[in-house]
Amino acid sequence: MQRKDFLKKAGLRLLGGVAASRLSALDLNVKDLTKSTFDSFNHQVGFNHLPRKTSVIMENMVLHKASSRGKADHGWLRSNHTFSFANYHNPKRMHFGVLQVLNDDFVAGGKGFGTHPHNNMEIISIPLDGDLKHEDSMGNSGIIKQGDVQVMSAGKGIKHSEFNKNADKPVKFLQIWLFPNKKDVEPRYDQMTFKTEDRKNKFQQVLSPLETDDGVWIHQDAWFHLGQLDKNEKTDYQLKKSVNGIYAFIIDGEVKINGQSLEKRDGLGVWDTSKLEIEATEDADILLMEVPMEIS
User: Fold this and answer.
1) pLDDT tens-digit readout, 22-40
2) Cα–Cα distances in Å, from 279 out to 175, 201, 230, 287?
3) Residue 150's domain spans which residues?
4) The total number of structural domains that make up the chain
5) Are 280 and 251 in contact (CB under 8 A)?
6) Over the stretch 173-185, which tens digit does the pLDDT of each residue have?
């Protein structure tokens, strides 16, 4: 792994362009940051972050088929929402533990999310194709692409923008939000490049709670791993903490996890378990997100 150098600018020029209609209302002054991400979502779902029983298909599993996700099409932006987000609201699909947002985004060439605020949220971006340009109110500027992972701890307040760097091709990426275990910390930004060969037929850690551990780090007892499994390959994943659950998102291919068959873009949440048993029934790319099931 090699940490990318991203440019620090003394005077940040915030990106212009077309912002999502769902974000325009969030283009606020800095003094309004306390009204943004954490408080709005906390008011929406409260502090009970266990999966709702109406979504459970087995004793300790919840299955989200790709076709059942919420959809948004703004022309320049197409997004699939695993959990309730913006205009998509499903009481059975609010969260999985502290995993609050899992958006599968497609952004047209030259377009993007205009400058908008967040506070008290851990925000992770994982590019799947193309180049995504980041700028923020701390003076950070960077570009992430496939093989990179970006993290932003919004803390006591930050503004940022994310745009497709290229005018002639789309960018596809996963946008993931987690509630933090500490509020009002100093905002921070990081990005890291990973060798994809290090996840061949095994899981590569890309995120953890520890600055000294592999991957980027966040203010939450969460671990993310990416794996590329060949057809018929079998492996398992041991959870780091007994109080955590784990959400598997199938980026591509087909697998069985603890006996449950999953296809491209399906999601499976499992709790009250110490491990996952994983078998690739076709070549597969998998994201595993181990997260606390309740806010600390």
Assistant:
1) 333 233 333 444 444 545 5
2) 26, 10, 9, 14
3) 2-292
4) 1
5) no
6) 999 999 999 999 9
